[in-house]
Structures are given as structure tokens and as C-alpha cells.
Amino acid sequence: MSTRNGLPRAGGPETDMRNDPGVRTILRRETRSSRAAAAGVAAVLVIAVCIYGLLESALRAIGQPPWLIDPQTAAERIVALPAGVPPLLLGVLGMVLAVCGLAFLLNAVLPGKRARHLIDDPRVAVVVDDEVIASALARRARAAANVTQEQVMVVVSQRLVVVNVRPTSGVPVQEERVLSAVEDELRSMAPEPMPAIRVNIAESGVIGA
Predict the structure, then answer these.
(1) 44: three-class secondary structure by DSSP
(2) Looking at residue 162, what DSSP letter applies?
(3) By three-state DSSP, how is residue 171 classified?
(4) Please, what is the Cα angle at 122 between 120 and 128, to 5 degrees?
(5) d(Cα 50, Cα 39) in Å, to the nearest integer?
């Protein structure tokens, strides 16, 4: 499903709406993924650890046996590491913690991208799903290759468009013709950023109906 956001003109006919700070904020929100999921997971983990610590501390304060491990015993074992822990288990735990930490760090630092592109138009602000762009490019590729819908698959990412074509047996497909048609369609859309195009023609064809 496509996402198109048309915003009213912010000035005269020569005004580029994307120079407006408010419009830039909206476009950034529409094209970048939210950090809410990662932040929620981190918050749940911290809350769970805190609740468990309070539970064990309360059990120790009233003289009851620990639920899992006494806080003082846990602290002593942590200080004594790596004593008492098999090296293989310690390495696996360290690797898991490192991967989790790296995932949270990259999620916080790197700009998350949604599968969307901006369309170059100074009058309105338009955001289009990559699936919509792929569908339009697939139609042009099918027409240029003279094949059916099932014989063309287009994958659109931020920097690359991959067009996979399976020709009909006995009917050759001209790669240059498909590439030219897809380039022409992509130029007419003018997505930002403009992705490169790669056309793959399968060696084995399909039997025509």
C-alpha cells in the first residue's frame, strides 16, 4: 500500500516546500523508522531487572530464602568471575551480551530508514512506498521484455533497484531495452535518493502459454 502525503503550498509558485522546517520534520518522520520498539525493549529489561532485585532484597530483609539467588551471593560471584564458570559458557554469555549491546547501539546511532522514497516536486511533499515504485517499474519492464507478470520481479531499496526477468523459452529478452525502459520510468518519478538499476536476465526461460 502506498503512502502519499500531499501538503499545501507554503509560498509562491517558486517555493520549494522541502525548505520549510515543518515540512522537513514531517518528511523525516515519514521516511525514518521509529526507535520506539528498541526503547520499549530496553525499558522492559531494565524494569524487569529492577523488580527482580527489589524482590530478592525484600526476601532477604524478612529472612526468607531467595527466589533464585541471594543478592549478596550474586554480587560475590560476579566479582569472582571468571572463577567457577566454564570458559565456554562464559564466552557464549559474553558474546550474547556483546551482540545485544551492539544492536542497541547501532539502533540508537544509525538513521533507520523506512521502505519509502521522496518524490522530487517543489510544489508538494510526496512520500511513496517502495512497493509502489517497484510495481510501476515492473509494468515497464514487462512491456519492454514482452513477458507476463509472473516473469518479472522488481526489488527496490534505498540505493538499488534490482529487476529480475525470466524470459519465455525461445524468445530472447534484450537487457538493454529493459534497462532503458526502467531508467526512463525511474527518471519520470524522480525519487530521492535516486537508486541505481541492475537488470538480471535468467538463463533458463519459462514455457509460454
Answers:
(1) helix
(2) E
(3) coil
(4) 40
(5) 16
In order of 4, 55, 131, 134, 189, the CA distances from 186 in angstroms are 17, 60, 13, 10, 5
Of 89, 52, 45, 90, the residue nearest 68 (C-alpha): 52
Q: What is the pLDDT of residues 129-171, one digit of tens each?
A: 888 889 999 999 999 998 888 899 999 988 899 999 999 888 8
What pTM does this model have?
0.55
End-to-end CA gap in the chain = 30
Reported as a single tens digit per residue, the pLDDT across 71-104 is 777 777 777 777 777 878 878 888 998 998 888 7
Which residues are paired to 127 by β-bridges? 118
Instruction: Tell me the pairing of strands 196-201 and 160-165.
Output: parallel
What one-letter code names the amino acid at 9? R
Q: Are 158 and 113 in contact (CB under 8 A)?
A: yes
What is the rounded distance in angstroms from the CA atom of residue 30 to the CA atom of residue 114?
8
DSSP H helices, 110-196, are 130-145, 175-189
- Domains of the chain, by residue range, sit at 36-109, 116-201
Grid cell of 117 as nine digits: 522514497
CATH number for the segment(s) 116-201:
3.30.300
The alpha carbon of residue 23 and the mean position of all alpha carbons in its chain are separated, in whole angstroms, by 22
- Contact yes or no for 51/68 (Cβ under 8 A): no
DSSP string, 59-89: HHHTTPPPSS--HHHHHHHHHHTTTTS-HHH
